[in-house]
Amino acid sequence: MTNAEPDVLALEVLIRRDGVGEIREGGAVERIIAADADELRSEIMTRVVDRATREEIVIDLRTIDIDGVFPLRVSPDGSLVETGDVGELAPGDDQLTDRLAHAEPAQPAQPGSSAEPDVDGGYEAATGANSDGFLPQGNVHETVRIPRVEMMHHALDHESDDDGVIPGPPQRVAAEVAPAPELDDQRHDATQDAPVQQAEAPPVWFEDRIDEDGLEDTQPWQPRFPRDARAQRDLDEIENVETGPRDIIRPGLPPRPTNTAPVAASASAGTVSKAASSTAPERRKSDTSAPTLADLLADKQAAPEAPAQQGWRSALRVGTGGLIKLGPGEAERIKRDEIRRVQRQFDGSRTVVVMNPKGGAHKTTATLMIAATFGEIRGGYTLAWDNNETRGTLGWRSHPGSHRNTAVDFLRQLPRFEVSGGATIADVDRFVRPQGDAQFDVLASDDDAASAAIIDAEAFSRMHRTLSRFYRVLVVDTGNNMRASNWEAALDVADQLVIVSTAREDTAASAAWLADGLRERGFGDKLENAVTILSSPSAKEDQALTVRLRHHFERLTRAVVEVPYDQAFVGGGELSVSSLKPATRDAWRTATAAIAERL
């Protein structure tokens, strides 16, 4: 007799960045409104998994999420897998059902409205949903409530205890079990000494009771979710899972031996071991292949990969109280890899030089964003340096700090820093401008209109040598004069060149001219290892031009990275990294990872 296959239900789920989503079942649409996308994922995935386990059905999901379209399948046991490749969002995929297109993200309601906040901070609206949380066919209705707290899985039917952990079924506490009567050796069956072959069984929880003889009785308790491996190990440490009579194992006490033969054998083995150990020092003196501490550390296993921290995978882990832990999706794996590359250890200070001889090529923007990304991910000790021979705009585009000192002021005090032990990083703070949470500093160029000071090659080289003692990464913004001596000095010390261009004909032509000049002057190796950043100059992109520029610079440099237009870059004022769009920050992280890869 075979079990019937579970029914399969097809659903479509919409999760939008603004916290408004839908569950679509045939002609029925349930609108769900949350504070943000993470809370929305948690609520929707909790409902779907709950329904699959309660009704013992398979649910195929087409999940339209921020990062793409995910084909998912939820099994009756609560497990969730991807059933295909992640697809790209098509035009109109993220549109709400027409009849409820006016819905807005959850926010505090006005007194007397139909969406009053409830006692736990959630919001409730009129609904026609039935008892299982899904609407009947043919209805389109706004959803119920979504509390502003971490979602817990409905299917467990348990209250969380004080420490926020969802308790499982009742488990035995060894200290509360009355001591079992002492058993004579004769009462132990011989089968206890034989190895036990454990048959595979479906994953279940166990509800343990003590029978009238003081022995334990185990009866299955079928949950909506199977016990995970960790919970199984914890239970195995408390009880012997075997056939026949069992001893109760109490914490701190080893199990009582079943007969004297193994004890005698153990004692005999101990005698042999002691005898053998008496000759161990002599063997070690002549054994040149003995393992060392380095061998022990080399054998150490790498830390397991952390579960997903973003997207629907993370929402499912949060929504089930950690019972279902999925690894990161492709987008999160790429992000983690980029972070690892930016965080890679260097064997000394590294210098990144940003170049394009044309003004308005986004060199200063690129310098700030590269330095900010290094600073945020590596945790400081990053300097953005305006190496303009007279005046640049890096100081104007960054946070001004508490002083107006510039590279010229630092150059005047440089003898103090050049003497060994003459100054510390704290003294450098008098000349650089900290950028707050972005965790990098700015060394501005001279902005005194009456000043005649010029930074030449010798001055740049002396400052670079000194600043390299205090910073791990120096990101240098260059001027527009390729013949200036300080421009050439920066090229000489560069560990990584970054060629920046907007997606415009004139700016790209200037970048191509720069590449020709580098090759002709003997810097072909640095050009081949360079990274090109193509920056979109406006919200309306010229795709054909971008493709042509990418094709050109891919044959000249090691990598080409496109970064999007962002309104926060417009205006030329102080740049606030935190105000940038997530897609903009992701693109600059990708660019910085490409730069760090060869540093």
UniProtKB/TrEMBL annotation:
Domain of life: Bacteria
Region annotation Disordered: where it falls in the sequence: 104-138, 215-290
Bias (Polar residues) ranges: 268-280
Compositionally biased region (Basic and acidic residues): 225-235
InterPro entries in UniProt: P-loop_NTPase (IPR027417), ParA/MinD_ATPase (IPR050625)
GO cellular component: cytoplasmic side of plasma membrane; cytosol
GO molecular function terms noted in the UniProt entry: ATP binding; ATP hydrolysis activity
Gene Ontology annotations of biological process type: negative regulation of cell division
Protein name per UniProt: Chromosome partitioning protein
Organism annotation: Pseudoclavibacter terrae
